[in-house]
Automatic annotation (TrEMBL):
It comes from Hemibagrus guttatus. This is Reverse transcriptase domain-containing protein. PANTHER family: REVERSE TRANSCRIPTASE DOMAIN-CONTAINING PROTEIN, THAP-TYPE DOMAIN-CONTAINING PROTEIN. Transmembrane segments: none annotated. Residues 427-443 have a biased composition (Gly residues). Residues 138-268 form the Reverse transcriptase domain.
Length: 443
């Protein structure tokens, strides 16, 4: 008990020091919100006389996810979902008191930190009671550290977003959008009529530019500083997309970013040569590792039914092997099928040495060929791109750049599915910009 309390005190001191870190950035969040607020003209506030209805509260409560950790008040989502009409009316009344007074209960502004160890428009329409409600969550924000059943004393939080709060996701998106808009210039890589200067997914950011001189890295880092954030130089790298090796020196402040030949973004390995061979090798290797880990406990386990083995195959092995969509050469197709049959043959009680045709194994087990499964996924994504509204970035990039093997693969897929050949604006197959054709691609 004494050791546990000592650990809790240490974590409390660490949490408080972490919150006070980053160059005494106390109040950065509210300063930025006030700055955004000053940028827009004050309008007549129609929200003052509004109130939260019980129907709105009921709808939100029904959407709560079960199994989530409670706050300091120990109220689990399951408790709220089990409320009857009377309970929901009291909850609605509490929400309206907080809405009209601009002050939330202190427990709502208290976070619980559980240490986990592991490897063009600037106006957002936030004003009046809504801005006051958001501000009240951060005016008295506090946290405590919980280890098992022990809780530390409360300490104030002045920096960052509230952990576990649904509003934090929205606020983070607002800040990243603000940083992206303010750091954009004329730089970027041209795709058709569009220039793309950054790709952002949560806090994973890729900055694009035709040269190191055009990259707005310093501007991006400065905007992050202004918003109370900073670029993690230990997790940032520079890479040049070129068949030849080109030196590129990038730095954030005094920190020089290492130049690499490959890096992983959103689970996909990109190389400086722009080829996908290494990524496909990695996926096949990951699938092989999955099969090795399940070999005795699943693949060849006689006590496990064939149906259960195929269910595990579909839910674990196939997603690992087919994550991301590739333009596949015949060599890659052969390797994918070999990886598929190495699992299915053992489920069927055979080995690859038995030289049984793949079609016999598919028919015997009642499974769809993996290559056909991949092609279905490619066609599904192709359909989304074709009918994506004009202006959506994935569709615009696709319309500008289906050339070479990508175009040949798409034409083969469309022909095999009986959809005809996509045609360019001139009426002939192909073209650098695809227009109205066999699949009705909007121009």
């Amino acid at each position: 008990m004494v050791v546990s309390e000592a650990k809790t005190r240490v974590w409390e001191e660490f949490g408080e020091a972490m919150e006070k870190d980053y160059r005494t950035a106390s109040g950065k969040f509210l300063q930025t919100v006030r700055h955004l607020r000053r940028q827009e003209p004050e309008a007549e506030d129609s929200e003052v006389d509004s109130f939260i209805t019980q129907a709105e509260v009921t709808e939100v409560v029904q959407q709560l996810l079960v199994g989530k950790a409670p706050g300091v008040d120990e109220i689990h989502p399951e408790y709220l979902k089990s409320l009857d009409v009377v309970g929901l009316s009291w909850l609605t009344r509490l929400c309206n008191i907080a809405w009209r007074s601009g002050t939330v209960p202190l427990d709502w502004a208290t976070g619980v930190v559980v240490p986990l160890f592991k490897k063009g428009d600037r106006r957002y329409g936030v004003r009046g009671p809504l801005l006051i409600a958001v501000r009240s969550l951060y005016n008295r924000s506090r946290s405590l550290v919980r280890i098992a059943s022990c809780k530390s004393d409360l300490f104030p939080v002045h920096v960052g977003l509230r952990q576990g709060c649904p509003l934090s996701l929205v606020l983070f998106i607002v800040f990243m959008d603000r940083i992206s808009r303010r750091s954009q210039g004329l730089e970027g890589v041209r795709f058709g009529d569009h220039r793309i200067s950054s790709l952002i997914f949560a806090d994973d950011v890729v900055l694009l530019a035709p040269s190191s001189l055009d990259l707005s890295l310093e501007c991006f880092a400065a905007e992050c500083e202004a918003a109370g954030m900073r670029v993690s130089t230990s997790k940032s790298e520079a890479m040049v997309l070129d068949r030849k090796k080109v030196a590129c020196t990038l730095q954030v402040g005094v920190e020089v970013l290492p130049q690499v030949e490959e890096f992983k973004y959103l689970g996909v390995l990109f190389t400086s040569e722009g080829r996908m061979d290494r990524e496909i090798d990695r996926r096949i290797g990951a699938a092989a590792a999955v099969m090795r880990s399940m070999y005795r406990s699943v693949v060849v386990k006689k006590e496990l039914s064939q149906k259960a083995k195929l269910s595990i195959y579909q839910s674990i092995y196939v997603p690992t092997l087919t994550y991301e969509l590739w333009v596949m050469t015949e060599r890659v197709r052969s390797r994918i099928q070999a990886a598929e049959m190495s699992f299915l043959c053992r489920v069927a009680g055979r080995s690859l040495r038995d030289r049984v045709r793949s079609s016999v194994t598919w028919e015997e087990l009642g499974v769809e060929p993996l290559l056909l499964h991949i092609e279905r996924g490619q066609l599904r994504w192709l359909g989304h791109l074709f009918w994506m509204p004009l202006g959506r970035l994935p569709g615009e990039v696709f319309r500008a750049c289906p050339t070479g093997k990508t175009q040949d693969t798409l034409e083969r897929l469309c022909l095999s599915a009986g959809l005809g050949t996509p045609r360019g604006p001139s009426g002939r197959a192909g073209g650098s910009v695809w227009g109205e054709g066999g699949l009705g691609i909007p121009t």
